Amino acid sequence: MPNSNPTTTRVTTRKTRLWYGISAITAAIILGVLTHWDEVVKGDRKVLHELIEVRRDSITTFMETATSFFDPLHATLLAFIVGLVIGWWTRSWREGIYIWYATAAAAALSTLFKWFFQRNRPPTIYRLVTELNFSFPSGHTTATAALACATAFVLVRHVTSSRGRQIVWALAVALILLIALTRLYLGVHWFTDTLAGGLIGSGVAYLLTNTLPKPPRYPRNQRPPRNLA
Length: 229
Known about the structure:
Pfam families: PAP2. It is a multi-pass membrane protein. One of its GO terms (molecular function) is hydrolase activity. InterPro entries: PAP2/HPO, PAP2/HPO_sf. The protein has 8 helices and no strands. By secondary structure, it is mainly alpha-helical. It has a single domain, classed as Vanadium-containing Chloroperoxidase, domain 1 (Up-down Bundle), CATH 1.20.144. 38% of the residues are buried.
């Protein structure tokens, strides 16, 4: 019998979320192997040079500011704060802490991947900010993807309208794309680094949704507490 509760978010099954998470991380590993393939290298270089062509002082200032808030450490700290706020709003500490540990786990996995693949960053002459560690995957994009996806997963469990849920996910995707773009524009990552970061971050967030409690079920005539939509 179909679920008649309008406030319960449509979610994929636990098994589907598990398989998506594993598949996304596996895809990132495969992508890491392919970064040595000539066609991938050519594509990465093309994207880098195209973005160099559109650099402007005003854009650079914005990109530098935006990227500074979402390095793995800052993103993990931000996830802790966001988790506290959302945990209070949803009255569920498990939902709040999930946002933090999903981001922290993704950031840690990103560091492990960097050590394993040891891919060099774009040449120093193209970089607008200083980065000293390896390139693959983008730690900024990984942490941002985990933070954005984890936050969206929790919010859509409590937002009543389908439009509201669409807005939540649209904002999450927009944030991920923005931070990925900052890393490319600033010349510190290749395109495949940011793509892998998005896969790893979202994959970890998906995997860890299985640690969340069951979605809340509200009566038809009762809106969720402190509802946003």
